[in-house]
Design goal:
The chain has a single domain, classed as Roll (T-fold). With 281 residues, it is α+β, with helices and mostly antiparallel strands. The protein contains 6 helices and 18 strands. The radius of gyration is 18 Å and the shape is globular. A hairpin with a 2-residue loop joins strand 1 and strand 2.
Amino acid sequence: MERRTFRAMGTDIELLVAADSAGDALDAAEGEFHRLEALLSRFRDDSELSQLNRDGSIDAGPDLLRVVQLALDARERTGGRFDPTVHDAVVAAGYDRTFDDVPADGGAGRAAVPAGGDVRIDGSRIELDRGVRIDLGGIGKGYAAERAAEPLAIAGPCLVSAGGDIATRAGRWPVGVETAGGTLTLELSGSALATSGRDRRTWRRGGRTMHHLIDPRTGAPADSDVVRITVVAPDAVDAEVLATSFFLAGMDGAAAEADAAGVPAVIVGADGRTRLAGGLA
């Protein structure tokens, strides 16, 4: 087993591959994260995403085009609970720079900015309505995890972890999930996992605790009775979308939707309870 860790996309990345002498595959997988961060980061002025947000339109490369299309598809199928146009709402809440540089406490934030702006794709061209900007942070990490797993899998069964977004190829991979009562172990094999929660990336503005999971309807950090939710899905993009959508659905809604869709989910509530749904028991 070979392992590599590094920082990219504002989080800790871990690569595991069941092989010997997998240096070239590890290099290629790490390179995918750095390449995609350079394209998709809202914190880099020279990224394609920043150019799109600044100019309102772009003839996009294949990766930005694909991730924006995935995000718009996700907005449609989640009824707007997942929405890439939350950029200005996240900034208004105080997440206006890389998280390591966000002040832990500060004065009153700016007024909330509801999402839902129009984004159009015509061939390779992406156009935003006036005043609309997009954020691809979560879905971008899931996409990067999947892209990094492709060259790594050439060397052997592998796992890619991007700050809680996990993609696997072949093999059997036990993954620990925090619950209210301890750690629950889930086994992944060719599947993916993502966690969304309001208990990690937090800061304070005007005496109020803020977090990065925005309710697109209000433009404010979501007031959910879920503290943290972990879901298992066929790939890390779907897992990221479902985790965010279920978080916004609340404890009962998340459990009901996970059960109906057969999506394994571990839901930790603000009341200290942990609910298993989607076939987990």
